[in-house]
Design a protein that fits this description.
The protein has eight helices and three strands. Helix content is about 60%, strand content about 5%. The N and C termini lie far apart (about 55 Å). Strand 2 (about 30-35) and strand 3 form a beta hairpin. The chain is mainly α and about 200 residues long. The mean pLDDT is about 85. The protein has a three-stranded mixed beta sheet, covered by helices on one side.
């Protein structure tokens, strides 16, 4: 989705909430909404998708006492910043984006890099942790001790002398999850006679 398509989508979402959108070229801030009058004023020369998404979040949350523009001490502004990054990320992923293309996300949306990175990284870490917890037993069951033994025998056959073993390198070489670290460590210790 291009920057312009993204802006058009966000404008439509604001209009669906019953807001009138007015482009004012001399407006001193990129965008602002007045919830009581159901109007959003924006400066098309200045407004980015992040700023429009930020205002959409204010509309959705019915924020009407926000204080100064992007006041970092105001909880409504902090929430709008966070939720606008998550909304834009959801749109980005729905259009084929992924964390590998994080810079494209930032360039398209003009989301503040550090803010977006911290929010998206936390989301990914939480999601990875949840998936790991859900499937931990299945992952452990998917490889048995004999298979691990066979992989290790194959691995050590490439070396004349083994002084140390990097278990993570071993797991990566055989495309095994790092969740198998303890199983591999135990098997290496038994095969190499170390404890």
């Amino acid at each position: 989705m291009s920057r312009q398509e993204l802006l058009e989508y966000l404008f439509k979402e604001i209009e669906k909430c019953g807001f009138k959108i007015v482009d004012v070229g001399f407006f001193p801030v990129p965008a602002a909404v007045n919830f009581d009058n159901k109007i959003m004023i924006y400066n098309s020369d200045e407004a980015s998708p992040f700023e429009i998404a930020h205002e959409l979040i204010h509309v959705l949350n019915k924020d009407n006492h926000r204080g100064d523009y992007f006041d970092a001490t105001n909880p409504q502004e902090v929430i709008a910043n966070r939720e606008s990054v998550l909304l834009l990320w959801e749109i980005f992923e729905a259009n084929g984006g992924s964390y590998e293309y994080f810079n494209v996300f930032v360039n398209t949306t003009d989301a503040p890099f550090e803010l977006a990175e911290s929010i998206i990284k936390n989301e990914y870490l939480e999601m990875h942790k949840a998936i790991t917890e859900i499937f931990e037993d299945e992952i452990k069951v998917s490889i048995n001790k004999q298979e691990m033994h066979d992989y290790i025998i194959d691995y050590i056959s490439y070396f004349d002398v083994i002084e140390t073993v990097n278990i993570y390198q071993f797991l990566d070489r055989y495309h095994l999850s790092h969740n198998f670290y303890n199983m591999a460590e135990t098997e290496f210790q038994q095969l190499l006679g170390t404890v």
